[in-house]
Amino acid sequence: MTSCPTPRLRVLAGPSPLELTDISDLVNTGIPHPIESNRFCGRVVVHIKGFPVTAESEYFEREDRKGITWSIQMQGRFLHHHSADNILFGNTFDRPLQLPWGSGVALKFMHFIDPTLEHDLAGPKPWALSPLITTMPHLSHSELPFKDSPLPLFPPPAPESIKDDTKLLCKRINEGLQQDKSATNETTVRQSGFAMNGDANDGLQLEKTSKRRKYFADAKNRRQITFGPKDVLTTDFCYGFLSFPTLALNLPGGISFDLKKYWDGQPVRFVCVEREVKEDRDEDEDEAIEKEQMFWCVVVQAAED
């Protein structure tokens, strides 16, 4: 049996799939690429282990990133106010996927990592999306003194990595709950297993990724948070189950897939989008609505010869 040739890849980024810039030369350099639109202002850094265009990154040698094979880091702010429940991150595709036998195991693995994942991977335009606040392995939140203040340092100087920091979010939730002692809010916190104290600084604490994900897995808790122009999110979406450039998917238990056999070369988009609220839409509206809903995207696709 002949093996599939290893594809040449390139990476693009921009505010929408219609406005992309090739950033392949920036991969593994730690140099951020700006992404700006009338909906989002930020910058992205991409690391891919084994990426043939650039040298290997020291990122993968860090103690807290051992075993990681790829990383999409983003820092930015939303220029309008959005509920944390309506800001989604994940993948979208233009045409049907050729799903390998056993792909159900991979989906169960992804649901184990992120129980808030929703998807339609068997449809004509497959997608898989989760609330950004729950799906990110590493998420840091800070506040600017003014909405036009410069963004904080990004990325952190090596060998530092992005770490969870949700202290200001917790303080905001605590203050909101103290102002509104309704039975609904008290029950939400009590059922989530997160104790509340009297002081806004000593109540809800989500210092670990696991606690953040557990708390915001409840949509009611996500709706407690609104992100606006002064809120800065710094995230690192990084995992180790996909190897480049061989496109080998390796799951726990020794399960592996050679994705080259099933990938038809269509772009793989990592997108941050607003939750769709329009129920009925014509197929001709897809492109316009997609751009309207998009905050930013990073695309990995086959390089043209």
Explain what this protein looks like in three dimensions.
- By secondary structure, the protein is of the alpha+beta class.
- Helices cover 19% and strands 30% of the residues.
- The chain is built from seven helices and 17 strands.
- The strands form four sheets. A seven-stranded antiparallel beta sheet has the order 2-1-17-16-7-9-8. The protein has a five-stranded antiparallel beta sheet with strand order 3-4-5-12-10.
- Strand 3 and strand 4 form a beta hairpin.
- The longest helix has 13 residues.
- The two termini are 25 Å apart.
- The model has no long low-confidence stretch (mean pLDDT 86).
Instruction: Name the shape in a single word.
Output: globular
The SS-based structural class is alpha+beta
* Mean pLDDT across residues: 86
What summary fits the major beta sheet?
Answer: 7 strands, antiparallel
Oligomeric state, counting identical vs distinct chains = single chain
The proportion of strand residues reads 25-35%
> How many β-strand runs?
17
Distance between the termini: 25 Å
Give the fraction of residues assigned to helices: 10-25%
Radius of gyration: 20 Å
Order of helices and strands: EEEEEEEHEEHEHHHHEEEEEEHE
- Helix count, DSSP H or I runs of 4 or more residues: 7
Q: What is the strand arrangement across the widest sheet?
A: 2-1-17-16-7-9-8
Low-confidence stretches: none
